[in-house]
Amino acid sequence: QFFKKDDFPYKLFFILVAFSIPMAFLGGIWTLHDRIYKVILGLILLIPIAKFLGIFPKTQFSVKQNLPILIILGLGIGLISGLLGIGGGIILSPILILLGWCTVKQTAAVSAIFIFVNSFSGLLGKSFSTIQFSENITQILIFTIIGGILGGFFGAKKFKVQWIQYTLALVLIIACFKLFTT
User: Fold this and answer.
1) Residue 77 confidence (pLDDT)
2) Please, are residues 96 and 107 in contact by the beta-carbon 8 Å criterion?
3) Quick check: 166 and 52 in contact, CB under 8 A?
4) Distance between alpha carbon 18 and the CA centroid of its chain, in Å?
5) Rounded to a whole number, what is the distance in angstroms from the first to the last CA of the chain?
6) How far, CA to CA in Å, does 5 sit from each of 95, 103, 145, 146, 155?
7) Distance (Å, rounded) from C-alpha 104 to C-alpha 20?
8) Cα dihedral angle (55, 15, 147, 165), rounded to 10 degrees?
9) Cα–Cα distance for residue pair 126/14, rounded to 1 Å
């Protein structure tokens, strides 16, 4: 849905993905202690919460896209994604917006595909270690796909950017609270 609305930053996406996929696989092989996992994930989620609530300055940094920065971002986000079992979009999105490399809708498009490929790569890495799927995996996948399609449609065509940011911030605050209190 977002491809139809904005120009997709192909070069940025392909460089990030080329370096994040192998690191997500490697991170997926490793296993973190449960408490360390929750603390790291909770701290990482504070970054987009701060961005979406406007705690970071409105002005964007003037950082030019260059290959070394994109490689470092791809490697780092890929490794963290694999370690934590997340797609990495929650880390990548605020960075793209803060550095002024993408609009909010371009960021949503880049992040959606970035999350998919990194999740798949990390899952492959996890398959080399111990991985157990929920008995409800089929239902979870069906609802995830339906939710993704609906979210893409409403995000691209119906909802205002500010509403999406506040809603996502609320969801992330709830997730952080659960991570820090369990």
Assistant:
1) 92
2) yes
3) yes
4) 16
5) 36
6) 21, 11, 21, 20, 11
7) 21
8) 10
9) 23
pLDDT category of residue 58 using cuts at 50, 70 and 90: low
CA gap 3, 44 in Å, rounded: 27
- Specify the pTM: 0.70
CB 155 within 8 A of CB 104: no
Q: Which amino acid does the sequence have at 120?
A: F
Short-list 83, 108, 119, 88, CA closest to 168: 108
In the predicted structure, residue 166 carries a pLDDT above the cut 60: yes
To 10 degrees, the CA torsion angle through 162, 163, 164, 170? 110
Hey, is 12 helix, strand or coil? helix
- Read off the amino acid at residue 176: C
